[in-house]
Structure formats: C-alpha cells, structure tokens
Amino acid sequence: MFQISNLLIAADFSAEVANNSAVGMIGSFIAAALLIVVPATAFLIFVSQKDSLDRTSTGRR
C-alpha cells in the first residue's frame, strides 16, 4: 500500500483529475443502467407476464 501511495504522490495527480474521473465513472454506470439494464428488465417482465397470461388462458380450455 505504501508503494501505491508513493506512486500517486510522485505522479502528481491532482484532486480535480481524480474527481473528474470518479464523476465520469459514475456517469458511465448511470448511462449503462439507462441504456441496457432498464430496457432489458422491462422486456423480460413483459415477456414473463405475457407467458403467464398465455399459460393461464390455455389451462382454462
């Protein structure tokens, strides 16, 4: 751990750069959730509900 902290100090990273990187990472997570996870979840719920309705309607025949 000591070597990593020395490397960061020696590389002269600023707090602003670290902050911008963290904000970008969080923004990427949010974008991924909005673009991939939410539509996939909605689609799977839709298919699951439709399949459930199909099974109950065929069971009544």
Tell me what you see in this structure:
The protein has 61 residues and is an all-alpha fold. Helix content is 90%, strand content 0%. The protein is built from two helices and no strands. It is rod-shaped and about 70 Å long. It starts with a helix and ends with a helix.
Keywords:
single chain, 61 residues, 90% helix, rod-shaped, PSII_PsbX_type_2_subfam
Short description:
This is Photosystem II reaction center X protein. With 61 residues, this protein is mainly alpha-helical. Helices cover 90% and strands 0% of the residues.
Structural class, please? mainly alpha
Estimate nothing, just give the exact number of structural domains. 1
Residues in helix, %: over 70%
Task: Give the overall shape.
Answer: rod-shaped
Largest sheet: none
| CA(first)-CA(last) distance | 68 Å
Contiguous uncertain segments of 5+ residues: none
Q: What do the pLDDT scores average to?
A: 81
Q: Kindly provide the radius of gyration, computed on alpha-carbon positions and rounded to a whole number of angstroms.
A: 24 Å
Count of runs of 4 or more consecutive helical residues: 2
- By DSSP, the count of extended strands is 0
